[in-house]
Amino acid sequence: MNILICPDKFKDSLKAFDVAIALKQGIQSVFPTTHVHCLPLADGGEGTLDAIESILPVQKIRLTVRNPLFKSIKAHYLFDEQKHIAYIEMAQASGIELLQSEDRNPMETSTYGTGELILHAIQTGAKKIILFVGGSATNDGGMGMACALGYEFLDMDKLPLEGKGANLPLINQVSEPQLSLMKKIKEIAFFVATDVSNPLLGQSGASAVFGPQKGATLEIIRYLDNGLNNLDEICVRDLKVDPEIKNSAGAGAAGGLGAGAQYFLNAKIISGADFLLEKYNFKELVKDFDLIITGEGKIDEQTWDGKLISKVLEAAKRKNIRLVCGICETETPYPTYEIIKKASDKEDALKNAAIYLEKIGEEIGLELTNGKN
């Protein structure tokens, strides 16, 4: 039997690679004659560059940038020297995994470091930049990114503002970078890879939907939503951008960076899952396997809404499928294995996920040896 294990990461617990290896070890401990192939996937957040590096001829460009709280950290992006394409993962510089839970505050976090990565790619000679925006710690609408690229934001007193969520409502004016840099920006094709379809503002917007997981209270959510609305109005007025950007699918991705990349980079939104699965030639790949095992940390209603796992299931719909997750909060049409049902509590599930995944692998392996497909 040929088995393909192709999970996404288990957020706050394990990378996709570690998930796949734990399951493989469990399966082969009871079913050693089966062939198991591990294919760690990513949805645009942490781990996306690892996935790309495994399949494309790219070099890793390392540099020091600012993290979400403006502290210096080491980060990298990937560059295809032949095609002049840069692949940038915002989680490298502005990701929520870079901060302890007590430090997560979308009033203070910034996409400035992501802007530094983009600027370096521009200076390296990129003609096309693909920005993966999953796993952000920010809600600044790309203001920080824009500051790193030379955009200037002024308040009512004509004083410059630092690019972070708290300053969004204070913006009174925005101006473009110096002409030479702006010319380079306009010559580059920018793409934002995301599977978030939320608009920028309102109940379905960046602040309301994703703010709480970044540390926002109800009061902060209202403040940031108003701030993003102000950012939009200022950009429409001063930069002459399309007034419909705020309503576009994906504008609310990464705390509004989906909109910000359109304001400041004239970026186009693309599906991160479609992009990566196409690079893997996934629809053809699955034909060689008898069983597909996939999953993510939490399976819920959002899982089916164009996210990576739903795309995997669509491509593998004619195959036997198993779902594995930390916790499942929705009905699924496939056999589903949850870590939380084996762990004593959530903390145990997160801390010892690899151990429980190996046990789940054993369980699946035993089912297969007993002829249960």
UniProtKB/TrEMBL annotation:
A UniProt-annotated Pfam family: Gly_kinase
Entry's Gene Ontology molecular function annotations: glycerate kinase activity
GO biological process: organic acid phosphorylation
Key words of the record: Kinase, Transferase
UniProt-listed SUPFAM superfamilies: Glycerate kinase I
Superkingdom of the source species: Bacteria
Bilayer-spanning residue ranges: none
Family: Belongs to the glycerate kinase type-1 family.
Protein name as catalogued: Glycerate kinase
The organism of origin for this protein: Sandaracinomonas limnophila
